[in-house]
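Dear colleague,

Thank you for sharing your sequence with our group. We've completed the structure prediction you requested, and as agreed, I am returning the results in plain text so they can be pasted directly into your records. Please verify that the sequence below matches your submission; if there's any discrepancy, let me know and we will rerun it promptly.
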Amino acid sequence: MQLYRDDGVVLRTQKLGEADRIITILGRTTGRIRAVAKGVRRTKSRFGGRLEPFTHVDLMLHPGRSLDVITQAEVIRPYGEPLTGDYPRYTAGVAMLETAERFTPVEKEPALRQLLLLIGGLRALGENEHDSRLVLDAFLLRSLAVAGYAPTLEECARCGASGHELRLPAFAVAAGGTVCPSCRPPGAASPAPATVALMRALLRGDWDGADGSERRHRVECSGLVAAYLQWHLEHSIRSLRHVERV
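Please find the predicted structure tokens below.
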């Protein structure tokens, strides 16, 4: 079969044999792929450090029986470089990579919007203009929206009530977002109105509003976003535990 070309972001690597690695990449046209980089762990590997997580790479690949084989790799942008010396930003970036992989469970299924979200999120982390946790939560909320799971934040997720009836909303993960007092299920959270406003700002990209939020509302927002994300994925994002310690 003929070689094919794609570009994408390296999500993860794992050892294979004595000198090879399996590289998981979210590609622009191919979607998530797992491919072998032969000899990459040798000192004189022709790939050098080009196939590391966070790196946006241009690849040539050869289709294989179970795993494709990377024959050429060129760096487009190493998004990991500005993150390595900043623990909060690095762990936020790792959580983005893991989340992007979870949102693309089927190999070779195109996921261009998820890739563009990931590139935008990694770029924002590297530019250091916004708090790293705000950037991560914005990425998580928008990834949920791309997958069709955006939380309801402007009205009741159950009855559609809005305005005065949502002045003091509750947030129910299983219900899909904010709920009015009449629809509130047992165990629903009671976030501050400013926390819900922050979630709305992050979802629509209102950085002036997000950057002006108070720390306590950011902490509450992060908890709700993490719970909502993991409920819909039906799987925990292990790297979020490290982010939450920061």
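Summary note from our side: Residues 215-233 form the longest helix (19 residues).

Kind regards,
the structure core
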